[in-house]
Structures
1.
Amino acid sequence: MDIVIQLDDCFQSDLTRLTEDEKAAYKSAFRDATYTHVDFKQDVLSVLTKQYGSAVTAGDKAIAIDASGSRRKADVIVAIQFRRYFKFRSSNDSEYVEGICFWNGKGERIANYPKQHSANLTTKHQASSNWMKPMARVFKNMRSRMVDDGLIKSGIAPSYYIEGLLYNVPNDKLTSSYQDCMVNVLNWYRQEASKSDLVCANEQYYLLRDGHHTCWTQGKCDAFVEAAVKLWNEW
């Protein structure tokens, strides 16, 4: 279970698409926050540790809370608001896409867009005659079996990227039955998909790129699909 705790009183921005005049206007409109993401994450970690004790571990990206009794394992992302600006004339005259961002252990900023991800998947589900979400569950269950059978390593296919892969599948491939959907998806990826053009479900990043925190590597995606083909053929 993933949990996002977000600080809304401050935000980070991507200004790369702004003109120099717009960047100057932005810098005049806002000032740096005195309470930083580092402070916020430390405070969240302190509160969670007081509540759950040794079950809490600070990882590279998330704070992990181990399962215990009826409590499920949880990964807590401590984030702040993120804005990718396309126009800025003043704080009342601007255009941007809003997401969240956080920093990993190396101090590298990672930005994502969970609201767009969720909304786009819902639209895709409806446009695919309600096959998108059931097929996502099938592929995630297959992933668990692949790991158990030693076909792939744990962590090679996060749910976020599996959903992103299915988001790109043409709607007419998701139809009729689970069997047809599965065969169509696997054949589409192996034979038809323009892999460099696939996008994440949030439509803010490409899905398959090496060396990017927000993208799935081509090798890992290929390995997941080939393992799915092998497992499917065994069934």
2.
Amino acid sequence: MDVERLKFILEDVKAGRCTVEQAIDALKYLPFEDLGFAKVDHHRQLRNGYPEVIYCQGKRPEHVKAIVERMMARGNRNILATRASQEVYQAIKEAAYDAEYHEIARIVVVKRSEVPVSKGKIAVVSAGTSDLPVAEEAAITAEVLGNKVERVYDVGVAGLHRLLANVKTLNEANVVIAVAGMEGALASVIGGLVDKPVIAVPTSVGYGANFGGLSALLTMLNSCASGVAVVNIDNGFGAGYMASLINRLAQQS
């Protein structure tokens, strides 16, 4: 249920094209629908501007398919499913034939309505090629939410000249997402180069003492650069969503 569909229902009632009982029937699944294994939040687009995002890891493919079916039946034409395997993708395609799978990002997208694109840009920067799954999760999320995304990949601090060659691109963005594993120094370096908010994403990429991303997380949390905020380990989706909110607010100023 989005704002336009809600307006349509209320205008139909006002004009006499729809009875109050019919309107109640259309709205009775707000704010959520209980499927037994999941409570689907059909009200989220009205509150947050985008439908509930499905986190697929750990869910059975048939459960994800059922969630997609109910979301579509209740007027959600754009659906984002994260951490999706090929098996989950095939299940979603049974419910939505036009679903697209972004394999590196592990994201499934169903897009049946155009989302207004913000004028400003989001820059997604990765330290290394091994960080691409998390970086692409952030980038695809931001794009689906209606943002222009500039990708700057494999520019880690081991070869600082690669990053410095792209400073102009970073400064043209309203917000920068810095994705890095190992020691996670990339976010601090970027924070010292630009006057934009930097969302740091630690990844679990690294050798044993990386502790599955903990070393990168602690480095980013202890950054001496101003304007650096940190999301959880490997949380590309959270970074992309937060960057979208910041970019949208920048357009209102």
3.
Amino acid sequence: MMASEMPQIAEEDQLRADLYDFLGLLLARPPSADLLRHAAGLTGNETDLGQCITSLARVSKVTNEKAVTSEFNALFIGLGRGELLPYASYYLTGFLNEKPLAQLRNDMAARRITRAENVYEPEDNIASLMEMMAGMITGRFGHPASIADQKAFFNKHIGPWAAHFYSDLEGAKNSVFYASVASVGRTFMEIEREAFRMAAD
């Protein structure tokens, strides 16, 4: 679907989708120099989330591509495995490729969400889930999802573990740039959880 053909959504929802997409990009692979420059140009405000974004911008300004690639590899790839395993199945069951992944695949099929051809990670990776939420909000998979549908997906596949993952990423021994990314993610997940809690089904 071309950008010009995307359904119109409220500005607040577009901002939410943009942040989900941004987190997905940063967590899917080491950021390029262009993405680091974009992150360095962000401006926050006095809110908790705004202060986290300001911190991320500050760290991005002194981070280079080589350093962040090394950090990404230590955190998520490593020799055999990285410091963290960013998958819903692992956080919810202690094992990879378990029931949460099967449930996610069923819900993806129901919403006509398909995995990109060049992606081989299990779909319950945190980066993929951030991208799915963005797509549901904007209508990337056909039409914008209702708040009730967003809430159901979030509460089932993201809410039970994402904030815990982001907290672990904040405190990981190899985490420098990604500690700032994690602060944004954790704070955003708390905001989303509360907003969905207050939203009527």
4.
Amino acid sequence: MTTHTTPKEQKAAIRNERLALRDAMTPETRIEGSLAMVELAGDRIAFDPGTVISGFWPIRSEADIRPLMAHLRSRGARLCLPVVLDRETIVFRELVVGAPVVKTGFGTTGPGPEAAVLDPDILLVPLSAFDRTGHRIGYGAGHYDRAIDRLKAKGRVPKLIGIAFDCQEVASVPAEPHDVPLDGILTESGLSMFQQVS
């Protein structure tokens, strides 16, 4: 007897499997991989000075892209971080040099409520799994999907670059109609940009 699993169930299984692989990396390997991202892609992400780029403060075993964000700032980017307001909503608060970052709930860290809220032009997106067609599996809460929808409703089309380690790649992500594909993926092996078919 064959059992049919839904795309949501398939994604949950892939998420658990790939996050377990990421969790199994040694801290040293994660640091080396995170620094490799700066070396291999810090100058390859194309943007004009003043472009608003959203990064993230690492949680759990995520890549630490703070060195990459510092490099992008040195190239003229305005940085912001996602802040989870509630189970449905994230906003992007400006990250300025010298301003404090605080615990912002749900395990995240970001600028406090006094920081300006920005609409990012480029989002560096954490994820649990990805494939080479630009599909990703997030962490299951849908925060980025809703944030991207809100930006698009304002007429913004942010560029999405997934951030992951090579061990998080899978042959194929079960895509659903609401999924927003990535424009590129950055791992410790380098930056790959995808050609999206419109």
